[in-house]
Structure formats: structure tokens, C-alpha cells
Write a structure and sequence with these properties.
Two copies of one chain form a homodimer.
Chain A: H1 15-18, H2 22-43, E1 45-46, H3 48-52, H4 54-63, E2 70-73, H5 80-85, H6 90-93, H7 123-137, E3 143-148, H8 155-164, E4 171-177, H9 188-198, H10 207-210, E5 214-218, H11 224-234, E6 240-246, H12 254-258, E7 265-266, H13 285-299, E8 303-307, H14 318-324, E9 328-330, H15 335-347, E10 351-357, H16 358-361, H17 365-373, E11 380-384, H18 401-406, E12 412-414, H19 419-431, E13 437-440, E14 463-466, E15 471-475, H20 480-492, E16 498-501, H21 510-515, E17 521-529, H22 534-541, E18 548-554, H23 564-570, H24 575-580
Chain lengths: 583, 583
């Protein structure tokens, strides 16, 4: 146990730890861990990644001289301690300042943060650019990329390693191997990492050496002394080197060490028992997806659910994965592989359903286009967290899936507005074998159908939910509730609007749209970036008609940590603002 | 030399070679090579990849039993011999049938073609899906993915290998190592491949083994006997295995063996001298880009040109690359790395310019969004072959870059209409340090400015090229010539149109658009897929005004081997059709 305590509030920059003894650094580690756990448990956040990388962060800042030396953190969800050591400790000591910092690195927050990062597997590419720029400038700073084992399965991480190995100058990759991705790792590479751990880094097969890196193994990656030694040995290295450190995810918090998957990221929880503080169990679409897929898979061995490293985000707990058996496939964080493989599986007679966060599907744009759409292979994609109520970090927005997917020919894109429509669309998509289908899981509060929903979506058009005249509101997906509220307000004002559920986003129902050409006003509502969305397509189709078209949707922007209600209000996405357009 | 000749026209399917002796197969190889060279030289096509993989194709079809066994070819530009052996030989023997087949695999053409493939690095993912489907079905066919060394640098190839290594069942990857990408390879992996070749496959470091594959090396990859032995030894393998074959790109055609880069793909040429048959040297934008970049780089060591494995496509011949020295960077076929690194270089104070085919930039959508746009790092991207006059294979269309890029916040997207505007935009983009910029290189005939062009594009809006009234034509990029022809026709009809060059595609010039609200008609012309393009954005902006808006552009479709003039006519993109909208 540490002997003397440190006044954490006095740590203003890494300079404040440079003169510490090893014993003091160990004390510092212990003392940082307490407020760190306190904040994460009461506030929510990434648990395991930060606790496991605490000692390494201290050692990095002790050995390297940021911000002259550059530290680039993959995903950057493990940078809470980095923030504590770089002038932002108050955001971890004072509950009223908890929200002063974001959960990721952010150049707007600190000169110690090189990039705003949230998706995986980017750190090596970004850092290789800093190294290349340094070499062209004739600089001599150290460039350090920190990447977790889970992120190594992403294609950009490989492309980065492959190229960076040829730099011929200083380039340090710290592989933080905690033997876990968000969930357990998948891929042949992970057998190699295990072999390297088991042989103390001496195994004949070595992924990093095969790409041309020098290689160092640190068996005790939570031991500050070992880490300092290792980092000192590569500081000012004149060639690319990998420092492979073996860390314990969730280190120092027993519940997080025990259940690494649950405590990768957690909403507020009791740090002793691990129980969630707000275990609200509303009905939700994610559970419904997983339950429905389990039912379908049990009755047909050709049906599979695929994830790219985020089983929890699509409702597949370890128990559900076990129930699904070999029909549940986790390819690791490798969306390109997930999409390409899904196309091959569909071609091979299976019915693959890739469940994926909207923000991550964009990592496989080319595969959606080339591997799937050009081939017309009937794979099914179900997106989650799309729209205003999805994740609200600037790096994880679900605003852009609709413009992206509707721009690709040959993909049928469906937007259910309620639970019954959702499962009906899912069933139809699985059962048909004609076309690739994307289904956008609603993200707001669950609603239920007040009318029968179709079972066949093969030639589906728009549904007229309320028949009126003169004014039409076309409300897609999640925004059907908003559309209903707006049309209700209009009725109160004596207007008799038509309310339309477009159901399909990838093409226009021109028959229905033709009936609107004689209307006075058409208003489109969509829970995604307006630019490239369906409103603009409808406006263009109706462009040569006298009808006035108003398109409402989310901004083409990267708002960070926004409040959904405020964002919607700023876009005139309130019943009142919508209704006023009809006057 | 072969002793007896074979009637090639009688080869209807692989069954026709199954009973041949080794000597007959060698005769077959020699006899296939002659018409193959004749067709490629007179017709144009992929030279080196097909000549180098001729013997391997024979051996694959001799050993495996397609179409029951599945052969998936990466890029599929090396499948001319595969087509010759699978019922399509007439398309290689009779000049009048040369165009009966495309240059890539195509399921519409033959049951022996599993997928339509044109982009690199996808074969392993696609084939892994076929393998997974086979396993779920309980099948026992062989699944074979063929991939060139150059394609291994792409992220999807890594993701595919990493996952496929864990299949635990039959999965065969044939690595066709001809020691070349399109141009020389770049990446640490290629040192490992060299080491493997130099040690007859026994080197301690082995990329494939590190990922968990069994591994076989074939030193003479153009020797049918060696290949048959190797393929027989892995046929019905019960685990994933890599067969690494060392081939000679361009084998059997001296000019192609000598100059592998020039003869990767070639327009029609004299097979003896290698000289192009139609050496038309019009002024073109690609040469202008390379020449201009060389001039800029010579005067500023911070300026760099980046390619992802396609230096020739952006005008950088070996001589120009040599002149650029370390300021020219080829990352290999690794667009994600190119974009991520460009962001890092811009952050590090350099001025990176990534030149890339429009169809390949979509391989880095997530990197454009996350690594570049969210960070606002002022990297420059210059796209080529965008629009109707770009590449016309369904897998290489340049229709979709505009919807894709205009959907991403924070990227300034410029569309020059002539040479002077092009170089001025390039100069400005390089000199500024405020924002990421994409410049869309025109693809049609070079035109020159008949008016001065601005030097500052930081707050650029639309340019009114011809001031008229009532009717406005907004003609973007390449389509300015078309817009001019259309307005000329209108004038002949007594209409006085306004002609506008939007210059910027990523946002609207609402000041100019506001002046059009009182017009009768606005017509937008864009050389890209209409869906998600600028016309729909303009139509939406003007949607609440009485002005009629007509949007014209390319279809949201994957037309294959289309004729530009016919495609444009089918989209009403002729001066006459456009002018008729103004009546």
C-alpha cells in the first residue's frame, strides 16, 4: 500500500509527475484509481479500458515528453487517466465538473489531445501521418500510437501497421493487450497474441515481426517499473517498434475484473456489487431484435446473426450467444469482413443478418456497394442507434446512415415506425431471397401499431396513415410520433392534413407522391442528416410541381454531446414548429 | 515446345481438360497464350495479371471441380483464362466476339463466376461467407480464394484472413505473388513475402502462419506440375491453408515481363515492341495534375502527393515519382491508411494531397468522416475518373463520390469546370490550412477559361457565367460544356437563360439561389448520381418557392460497360433535352 498521499488537485501537467520516485508513482496510481472508480461508477463511462491502462498512462507520461512527443490513443476511450494527468483532473475529482470533459480525446479540450477519435483502429494511420510530417520537417519527437488488442482486427489498423513498418524512423506502437475486445476477441491474430503472452514474447510466429516491426514484450503491463523500463528502451528509437504490454482489463475493481464484457462500458453502477443504479427495463427494440432473431434461428439453421465486435449493442448477451450457438457469428471489430462475409453467405444459401450500430456501418461503405449491392446478394443489415436518440458523441452519431445507404443502388432500405412493423420487416427480409435489405431500428421510445402491418415488403410504397387534403406530412421511422403530434396540432387549428409513413427510404413511391402534386404544402420529417436524405429526394421529385415542400431533419454537422430535445428544437423538429409550416 | 495442337474452340468447360496429361496441359498453356496475347494487344485489357496466372488457372480447374468447388478471384482482372476454360473461349478466339465478355468475373455471364468483383481485397471475405454457408448447410465443397500479393495490403483482405483462419474447416487461399501490385508494392508485409520466397517458404517470420493458417510455398508458380501437386495436397483440406505461389507477371510476353507496371493494364499495343497503337496525346487533366504537383513540391518540402497503389492513374510515372523523391508516397492499395495518414500529416504541418480514383475513395468513407472531417485537418483529396466519362465497368463507376462526400460535414468539395479553375483550386487548397478539401478532377475533354478565375476559394459561392432571366441552368464541373450548349440552344429559341457554375458542391450558395426564387425554371446538371447530389439539395432549398426545379444527372444504378453518349441521352443530358425543359 502507498505510504504517503499526493494532492491530486495539484497535478496540472505531466511535468508534475516527472520528478516522482517509483514509489511515488505507485502511490499516484493507487490514488488516481479511487476518484476514477468513483466518477465512472456514479457517472457511467468506459470502465475496464481506463482501469487497465492506468499504470501504462502514468509510465507513458513519465517517460515521454508530451505534447512535444505525440501520444495518439486508439478509440481514445482509455484516456481518462491521460486527462487526469494533463490539466483536467478536476473533471475527475469534483462531481460538478464531471461533464467538463468528454469521454474521448479532443483537441478542443487540450493540446495533449492530438485528434478527436471514437471509432477503432485509426491510431496507427493517424500517428504515421504525424511521423511522416516530422520526418519531412526534420523533427525528432517521439510518435507513440496506443492501440488495444481488440482494435487490431480492424482493417485500418492493419493498413497502418503494414505501412508504418516501412517508415524507417522513430515510430512506437504500444499494444495494450487485455485479452478482450469489447466482448471476447475473434480472429486468428488472437491465438498469436496468446502464444506471445505464453512464451513471454518469444514465440516463433509473431504478427508484428512478420510485418517488419521490432518487438518488445512486457508481461506485467500494470507494473509501472516494467513499463518505464520498456518505454525508456524504445524512447528515441530510430525504427518502428511494437511494445506489447499484457494488462488486466478493469484492474483494481473486482466486479470489472470478473465481468470484463459488462464493465467495458457501463451506465452508473454500484462499484461494490456491480449492480446498475438505474436498472430501468423499458421495452426496447434491441432486446426485441435479439429475442426475435433467437426465435427465427431456432427454427431455421440457415439463419445467422452477425456482429462485428459489438454483440451487446445488438442485444446478444453471453447467454443469448450461447443459445444461438454457431448461428451467432462475431467476426471481431471488422465491419468490412462482416459485410463481405454476409454477401458470401447469402450467395451460399444462408440468411445472414448483420446487426450493427449506424455509425459503424459506414466503415464498410465499399463492401456494401461492391460486395453486396452490385451482386444483389440478399444479405440483411439491421442498424441500431440511428438518429437523434442514438449515441451523442461527435464520433458516434447516427445521422449519416440514411444519406449513405440511399446513395447506393440496389439496396432496399426500410424504416419501421413501430414494433410490429419492425418485426414484420425483419421477418420479410429474412424470408425473401431477392435483394439486399437494410432495416433501420427505431431508436426512440417503443410504440405499437394501431393498425395491421403488411407482411410483404417486396414492392412496398408509402402508407397513408391519416387521409387529409392540402397539407401532407411525410414522417419517416422514429419521427412518425412527431408527425402524429404535428398533425394533431394542425387539426386543432382547423387544418386537415394527410400523414404518410414512407416505410421505404431507398426509393420514392411516385404513385403516392403524384397525389400530392395538387397539395399546397408537403412537409418531410426524417431522423437523420437532411443532406442526402429522403426529403431532398421528394423535393426534387415534386420540384416541377407548384406544391411547396419543406424538408426537416437533423443537421449536416458533428454536434458533440448534444441534448436530443435541444437539437430537435434547433431544427424546427417540434410539433408546434412543424404545424406552423402548414399555416 | 508443345508437340500436338489442341482445338481450343472445343473447350466448353473444365471437364474438357480433366483427362489431359501433363504434357497436354502444357501444350494447352502454350496454345492459350497465343490468342490471349492477340486479344489483349489488339483490344486492350489486363496484360500481366492474366499472362502470369495462366498456368495456375489451368491447374486450379484441373484439380478442383468448379462450379461445385468455388473459385473466388480477387479483383478478378486475372480471370481471362478462367473464362477461356469455362465456356467462353470464343470471346478470346474471334475478334467479333471479343466484347461478349467483360473484364471481370460476372455471375450473369457464367455459373463459374461467383461474384461480380472489381475492387481489390474482397475475395477472402466473400469466400469466407461461402465457406460459412457450406458449413451451416453441411456441404463439403472446396472454397478457394485467389488473391494477388498487391491486394493483401487492403484492410478487407486482412480482416478476411484474420477471421477465415478461425473457420476450422476447408478454406484455401491461393496467394498469387508476382512481386508487384499495379505498380511496385509498398508495406512491411512485402519484405516478409520476399523473405518467404528467398527461403523457399521456410522463413521464421510468416505473416500467414502468424494469423493461424497452414502454409505451403510453390517456388515455380508458372509450372503446371508443381501447381497441380500443391493444389492436390490441399484439396479437401479440413482446415484453412495458404498456398503461396511465386509467379511471373506478364509471363510469355517479353515487353510485359520487362515493364510490369506499364503492362499491368494497357490500351491496345504492338505485342512485339510494346508501343501503344493509338498514342493520342491530348492535353489531359491527369498529366496536368502530376505536372502541377511536381512544380509545387519542388518549391515546398512540406507538400506531398500520396497514392494508394495507383500512381499511374494520377499521372505519376516512375520518372515523375523519382523526381518527387520522398515527397511522393505510395502506401500500397490501402485507401484507409492513405486518408488517415493524410489527416495526420496535415495535423503535423505538412500539405498532403491524396490523388485517388473516385471509385476507390469510397473505400475510406469512415476515414474521411472520422480521421479527417471531425478533426477538420486540412488534408487535400483530388479525385479522378468521376462521372460519365470515367471508367465504365459496373465495379469502377465514378457516379457516387458526390453523394458520398457531400453527405459528410466539414469537407469543402470543389468542382472545377476548366483547366485554369482546376489548378487555381489546387493551389488554393494546398496553400490554405483551414479545412479539408476535395477537388473533383474533370473527366471530359479539357476546356480553358474564357474569363479570369478566382485564386481564393475560402468563401466561394456560385459564379454567374451568363446572366439572363426566368430560366437558370446550374451546370457543375464537367457538365459546364453541356450547360453552355443548352443555353446556346435556348437563346436560339428566344429564351434568355442564366448559366451558373456552382464551383462548390458541399454547400449551397443561398445568396445566388435566392435570386432564382422568382425565376420560372431552374435546371441542375451534374455528372454524378442524382440521388444525394446537388440538384436535390437545390430543389429542397427552393422547395418552398414557386420556381420549378428540374434535376438532371446520372442514374442511381450500376450500368456495365455503357457508352457515355448513350447513357447521357437516356438521362436527358443532351443540349436539346435540356433546352426543351425551358419551354
Amino acid at each position: 500500500m502507498p505510504k504517503s498521499s499526493i494532492d491530486l488537485s495539484q497535478i496540472k501537467s505531466p511535468a508534475d509527475i516527472k520528478s516522482m520516485t517509483l514509489e511515488q508513482l505507485e502511490t499516484l496510481a493507487a490514488e488516481l484509481r479511487t476518484p476514477l472508480i468513483r466518477k465512472i461508477a456514479s457517472h457511467g463511462g468506459h470502465v475496464g479500458p481506463n482501469l487497465g491502462f492506468l499504470e501504462a498512462t502514468i509510465a507513458l507520461h513519465f517517460v515521454f515528453d508530451a505534447p512535444a512527443d505525440k501520444l495518439v490513443f486508439d478509440v481514445s476511450h482509455q484516456t481518462y487517466v491521460h486527462k487526469m494527468l494533463t490539466g483536467r483532473i478536476n473533471a475527475f475529482l469534483s462531481p460538478e465538473h464531471y461533464d467538463d470533459v468528454t469521454g474521448y480525446t479532443n483537441p478542443g479540450e487540450s493540446i495533449y489531445d492530438e485528434f478527436s477519435i471514437g471509432h477503432t483502429s485509426t491510431s496507427i494511420s493517424l500517428a504515421s501521418g504525424l511521423a511522416k510530417a516530422r520526418d519531412l520537417r526534420g523533427g525528432n519527437e517521439n510518435i507513440v500510437a496506443v492501440i488495444g488488442d481488440g482494435s487490431l482486427s480492424g482493417g485500418e489498423a492493419f493498413e497502418g501497421l503494414d505501412y508504418a513498418a516501412t517508415l524507417g524512423t522513430n515510430f512506437i506502437v504500444v499494444v495494450n493487450d487485455n485479452q478482450m475486445s469489447i466482448a471476447p476477441n475473434h480472429g486468428g491474430l488472437y491465438d498469436n497474441l496468446r502464444e506471445l503472452r505464453e512464451t513471454n514474447g518469444t514465440a516463433r510466429c509473431n504478427y508484428f515481426r512478420s510485418l517488419g516491426f521490432k518487438y518488445i514484450y512486457v508481461p506485467y503491463g500494470n507494473d509501472i517499473h516494467s513499463l518505464i523500463q520498456a518505454f525508456n528502451s524504445v524512447k528515441n528509437s530510430t525504427e518502428p517498434v511494437v511494445v506489447h504490454i499484457n494488462t488486466t482489463k478493469g484492474m483494481g475493481l473486482p466486479v470489472a475484473e470478473r465481468d470484463k464484457e459488462t464493465f467495458h462500458f457501463s451506465a452508473p453502477f454500484d462499484p461494490t456489487t456491480g449492480e446498475p443504479l438505474n436498472p430501468a427495463k423499458h421495452e426496447n427494440y434491441i432486446d426485441a431484435f435479439a429475442t426475435h432473431m433467437l426465435k427465427r434461428m431456432a427454427n431455421d439453421p440457415r439463419i445467422c446473426t452477425i456482429t462485428a465486435g459489438t454483440p451487446g449493442a445488438i442485444g446478444f448477451s453471453p447467454q443469448r450467444r450461447q443459445a444461438a450457438g454457431k448461428q451467432f457469428i462475431d467476426v471481431g471489430i471488422a465491419e468490412e469482413q462482416a459485410v463481405g462475409m454476409a454477401s458470401g453467405m447469402a450467395k451460399g444459401g444462408c440468411r445472414p443478418v448483420f446487426g450493427v450500430c449506424a455509425t459503424f456501418l459506414q466503415r464498410a461503405y465499399d463492401q456494401l456497394s461492391q460486395d453486396v449491392a452490385i451482386n444483389g446478394n440478399p444479405a440483411v443489415f439491421v442498424t441500431f442507434y440511428g438518429g437523434a436518440w442514438g449515441m451523442n458523441d461527435e464520433t458516434h452519431l447516427g445521422f449519416f446512415d440514411v444519406p449513405m445507404i440511399t446513395g447506393i443502388p440496389g439496396i432496399l432500405f426500410l424504416a419501421p415506425t413501430n414494433m410490429e412493423e419492425y418485426t414484420a420487416m425483419l421477418d420479410w427480409a429474412i424470408d425473401q431471397t431477392e435483394t439486399p435489405v437494410v432495416i433501420r431500428t427505431p431508436c426512440g421510445k417503443v410504440t405499437h401499431a394501431d393498425r395491421p402491418v403488411p407482411t410483404d415488403y417486396s414492392n412496398i410504397g408509402y402508407e397513408t396513415v391519416e387521409q387529409g387534403s392540402d397539407v401532407a406530412v411525410i414522417a419517416a421511422g422514429d419521427f412518425m410520433s412527431l408527425g402524429k403530434s404535428a398533425t394533431l396540432l394542425m387539426r386543432e387549428k382547423g387544418i386537415n392534413p394527410t400523414l404518410i409513413n414512407p416505410r421505404v427510404l431507398s426509393h420514392l413511391d411516385t404513385t403516392t407522391l403524384d397525389t400530392l402534386k395538387t397539395y399546397k404544402t408537403v412537409i418531410t420529417l426524417e431522423d437523420n442528416s437532411l443532406d442526402g436524405g429522403i426529403g431532398q429526394k421528394i423535393a426534387a421529385y415534386l420540384g416541377a410541381s407548384p406544391v411547396m415542400v419543406h424538408c426537416l431533419g437533423l443537421p449536416k454537422a458533428f454536434p458533440n454531446r448534444y441534448t436530443p430535445s435541444a437539437l430537435l428544437a434547433s431544427c424546427n423538429l417540434t410539433p408546434e414548429a412543424i404545424a406552423s409550416l402548414a399555416c
